[in-house]
Amino acid sequence: MQVYPVLLLSFIYRLPESPRWFIFHEREDDAREALVDIYGKDEADGKFDELKQASKDESASSIGYSDMIFPSGQQFHETMVTVMGQVNQALTGYGAVSVYGPQIFQLLGFDVSMSEYLTMANYV
């Protein structure tokens, strides 16, 4: 189960920087370079303009906790999707299987290595 983090760490240096973060921190040249790396020279300018406009729009509006909690808020729908995903995970017992999977499969008669493989298969 620890293979994925090792693989992620081994490839993380190849991941491009976030153009959105660069624009938010007023590093426009770095944002353009990152967009060229991601999209190529032809599409980079259009994407840069889109990100710049989105940054302006986002900085002009403020969102607070009330926007997430009350149904009339701008972020209520997104918040409910996230909350219901967590509730669904809790109600289906996925957390128990992911944590106690090897023990559960051993109690069902599988040997140790097969129990670990079956548990890992839950993550796919």
Structural key phrases:
mainly alpha; single chain; flat
Structure, described:
By secondary structure, the chain is mainly α. It has helices spanning 3-11, 19-24, 28-39, 41-60, 65-69, 76-92, 94-107, 112-121. The mean pLDDT is 87.
Strand content: under 5%
Q: What are the secondary-structure elements, in order, as H or E?
A: HHHHHHHH
Judging from the principal axes of the Cα atoms, what is the shape? flat
The helix fraction, in percent, is over 70%
Q: What multimeric state do the chains show?
A: single chain
User: What is the CA-atom radius of gyration, in angstroms?
Assistant: 22 Å
- Number of continuous helical runs: 8
| Class based on secondary structure composition and strand pairing | mainly alpha
> Major sheet: size, sense and barrel closure?
none
Q: Based on DSSP secondary structure assignment, what is the total number of beta strands?
A: 0
> N- to C-terminal separation?
11 Å
* Average pLDDT metric: 87
- The residue ranges in which pLDDT falls below 50 over 5 or more consecutive positions are none
Could you give a quick summary of the protein structure above?
This protein has 124 residues and is mainly α. The chain has helices at 3-11, 19-24, 28-39, 41-60, 65-69, 76-92, 94-107, 112-121. The termini are close together.
